[in-house]
Batch of 2 targets.
Target 1
Amino acid sequence: MDTKQVLRELNLSDNEVEVYLACLKIGLSSVIRISELTGIPKSTCYDILSSLTTRGLISQVVKENIRYFEAITPEFLLENLKQKEKRLKEILPKLISLKKTAYEKPKVELYIGKEGMKTIYDQVLREKEYLVLGNHTKYSEFFDWFSDNFIAKRVEAKIRCRYISEDSEIAKKVKEKDKKELRITKINKLMNAQNAEFYVFGNKVVFIVYSKGEPIGIVIENSDIAKLQRMMFEELWKKS
């Protein structure tokens, strides 16, 4: 094991490591002797020794008007770390509390095309339940290649959903399969002309746009936005 590297990991600079090891090796010594042994200029040695003294790694004594320096026993390094760990543990609950109250920045991801949609729906399949607001006729046009497989996986994993869909024959046929497919579907004419849908699960909201080219998915991870979308869904759920 590299002794110098380990000491560097204790936030000691290269010169501080050299001076500390020199002090360990030669014991009580003047700055001139330490400078000679390390090759570090005398003035720089003074600064380093002062810093190490402040950190409790070097002690000083004055004899006949000459200042001498000596390294503290190496066991002190371990004891010092233990004391720091103890103090950190004491304030850890406060630090965690501050983290929880910090502003949560939304994380936004963009997905395009079939592979992108698979990635989004894989995230849905990791949840116990989710909410959907969409137009199943448009969904069928874009996801006919994928829909049955997704529903089968969802049912197998016992993932339930609530779904607000447009007023159409396709949506009504979906509703007829609700019990079998672990779903509760409600019909709302407001969704008839929509070209997009959204999913809410966990602390994520997914918007999927049925563009003329490939479908586009936007995943927003933020608890406040998810809470808002849940509230909007519940209000529309009551009126559907």
Target 2
Amino acid sequence: MNDKVDDRDQWLFNLELSTAMAMLVANGATQVLYKELPPNANSKNQVYMAPDLSDLSRIPSGSVIAQSSYSSKTGQNEFVFHSPLDMYWITCTGTVSKAPEAKLIFYPQYPEVRMSGFLKGARYAPSTFFDKEKLGTIPDRVLLLGLTDRQTIVALVVPPESPAARQIKEEQPHEAYGALRVLPMDSSNSDADDYLTLLNALAGIHRSGWNDSIRLDGRGIVVPCRATNCNGNTLEALLGIRSNGIALPDFHGWEIKARGVTNSEKPGSSVVTLFTPEPDGGTYVSNGFHTFMHDYGHEAHKNGSRTNFGGIYKVGTAIKANKKLRLDLHGYDRHSQTYRPDGAVVMINSENEVAMSWSFSKLLDHWKSKHAKAAFVPSQVLRSDTPKYRFGRRILLGTGAEFGRLLTSLANGDVYYDPGIKLEHSIQGRSRSKKRSQFRVKSGDLEALYARFAEVDVISE
């Protein structure tokens, strides 16, 4: 028995890969990622995962929070992003032990994402293989992360001489995912499988021609869509996607966006709504919606029955004559294209007071989940008493949506704020509000948001 190995970790030296996979699956894993750990991945150093949080959208993680952290590299406190993990270590009996402090930490100044805190407070964590005084510096230890449909992570680590580690090495290469690899499972799809599934589904929708304006309700029942612009709802319904407010990719890991065009067979330029996040700061939040509309909205009817707040706002432009606010970025350096995690996208008035703000942590939280892989599908409308839509074969695909790219596009004025907010007043004194804070971009400017971008014909492909 190796005197450097804790007794409860000895079993991992003899673990077969088939047994490890069975234990992960028994605890809910539907996908398995792994990383061969270098000598510097130990209890004193965090495990490197990827250059950006958007590269890890498969990994279930909690809300992103900006926090101040001491950097040993600079000797100063720096703001970083934390995203908690609901993580559990598998024990020799097949049960699990929670790692209550596990988290992803995103350091945008480098940039890099690391996993941290996975040993702290975890009673049955395999600490032998992370302790520098034991086996925490040996190369080729293998960390296995099982991702479950419950948005949890179940984990194992095996030493390089174990049957499991040897078999993984023999079967390489495996598909890359950030700084990790994908360990094939019989029931799991690879990125290539998801890509082909997407193309096949969109090819079928294109061949179906004109479709009634519909949506799937929360129960999965097809119902008519009565809104003025239901192209996105109709496309999602045809893909089997239910209406929901969940900030997760729509279809096999892909975010699906319909973009309205005049002719779906020859799609030209269009405007795409990227996302519609509510502000989490400014007087919009502190003083309330009604006060905000009183201060910054304008009467849309002479009788005062409706107040609107709209217009197009781009970073770098002054307050327009008929408006009271302008868009800006706080905590973003245009010259170096770097940003502070405590920054925000803001709407400010002539006194530089913040009327609305979207913290970088809030926007990143959405961006990492929804836009890692996105498909933009051309849609054409046939307007009548019952509108119909048809969807084109030439789609735009973007992957690698680093958050910094979004901020750079905002700073350049390519991504802009185009709200459609209104407050209706009835004779009885009641009011009805519509809150829609849209961030939009022209289709010709989409490419700058992604590391990889292409137009694909779903029929010929």
